[in-house]
Amino acid sequence: MSNYNPWRLSVAPMLDWTDRHCRYFHRLLSQHARLYTEMIHVGAILHGGAERFLRYDEAEHPLALQLGGSEPRDLAACAKLAEQWGYDEVNINCGCPSERVQRGSFGACLMAEPALVADGVKAMLDACNIAVTVKHRIGLDKNEDYAPVRDFVGVLADAGCQTFIVHARNAWLKGLSPKENRDIPPLRYAVVHQLKKDFPALTFATNGGLQTNAHIAEQLEHVDGVMVGRQAYHHPWDLTTWDATFFGAAPFTRSRDEVELDMVAYMEREVARGVPVLSMARHMLGLRNGISGARAWRQVWSDHKRKALPPREIHQQAMEAAALYRVGD
Ligand SMILES: Cc1cc2nc3c(=O)[nH]c(=O)nc-3n(C[C@H](O)[C@H](O)[C@H](O)COP(=O)(O)O)c2cc1C
């Protein structure tokens, strides 16, 4: 365990991306980064089978479960399950702007209902002994006033929430796709810094648009933590610098080939349980970004014609393709 606060640096929850295979891969690259599940709807967990949605590998710790939902009783039941399954934290999504999620009355639209979220937080804290945290935006639609987000945090803090992960953009609930909602509303990090000033005893992590270690370090001058999403997914090798740079740990010494071989061993175990190989391999396609042969290597690992081959054979073919590419450079 490091001496740093648990939210110092994390990989963001990303639907369809940060599944357990992705998290296993990320954990090979950083021992200390906190990892989050994708948002999982409370109904899926309670009625669709906890095993299917909550299973993970022990190596993934420290690990947080992110919930989509708003009904306090359901949130509490899932928080209890999260603790039973050994998660280190349970997080409520108050930042997703998708129309489907709005129709379900959770995600970003919950920022307009702090009292309901506060009831959820209280019910979850009563039901479990792990950290209950909230991930949210800095406002809704075009309203850039500070008071609503300050009051949102204040109400949840009164309910017992001590940690806030703040995507430093408004969520525009109408007219933008979820993807556009991650790029178009302007980033306003100063709002997160102001929250930390106004609530110094609470833990705040900044999220949104952070790409380099310099960006991360700059945020850490103002807040307790940083959460990185797309950059971490597309450029996973960045994670290998995190433990030494941000957690005072020894430099990462393993090679990309060694990491890939660890993933091959993992995929062999999972294939034996019926998991399709390419559904796991897709998360590591950024492993060799920026390196000669990366494209050829990636093409082999994403080639559907090879989906029935054993992982080790695909690995060998990918390495050969990358080496061949180098010869022809
Ligand atoms: C493909 C994708 C799926 C996402 N799914 C979730 C999600 O399930 N829960 C959530 O809180 N945020 C989700 N997000 C938002 C990210 O967690 C993060 O807030 C956002 O991408 C901004 O951070 P970044 O600029 O570092 O990527 C998703 C983002 C992407 C790209």
Automatic annotation (TrEMBL):
Residue numbers binding FMN: 13-15, 66, 135, 167, 207-209, 229-230
Requisite cofactors: FMN
Q: Could you tell me the keywords of this UniProt record?
A: Flavoprotein, FMN, NADP, Nucleotide-binding, Oxidoreductase, RNA-binding, tRNA processing, tRNA-binding
Name-wise, this protein is tRNA-dihydrouridine(20/20a) synthase
* Annotated site (Interacts with tRNA): 93, 179, 182, 295, 298
Q: Show the NCBIfam families listed in the entry.
A: PRK11815.1, yjbN
Report the EC code(s) recorded for this entry: 1.3.1.91
Instruction: Extract the GO molecular function terms from the UniProt entry.
Output: flavin adenine dinucleotide binding; FMN binding; tRNA binding; tRNA-dihydrouridine20 synthase activity; tRNA-dihydrouridine20a synthase activity
Q: Enzyme group, top EC level? A: oxidoreductase
Q: What does this protein do?
A: Catalyzes the synthesis of 5,6-dihydrouridine (D), a modified base found in the D-loop of most tRNAs, via the reduction of the C5-C6 double bond in target uridines. Specifically modifies U20 and U20a in tRNAs.
| Pfam families registered for this protein in UniProt | Dus
Catalyses which reaction(s)? 5,6-dihydrouridine(20a) in tRNA + NADP(+) = uridine(20a) in tRNA + NADPH + H(+); 5,6-dihydrouridine(20) in tRNA + NADP(+) = uridine(20) in tRNA + NADPH + H(+); 5,6-dihydrouridine(20a) in tRNA + NAD(+) = uridine(20a) in tRNA + NADH + H(+); 5,6-dihydrouridine(20) in tRNA + NAD(+) = uridine(20) in tRNA + NADH + H(+)
Q: Which family does it belong to?
A: Belongs to the dus family.
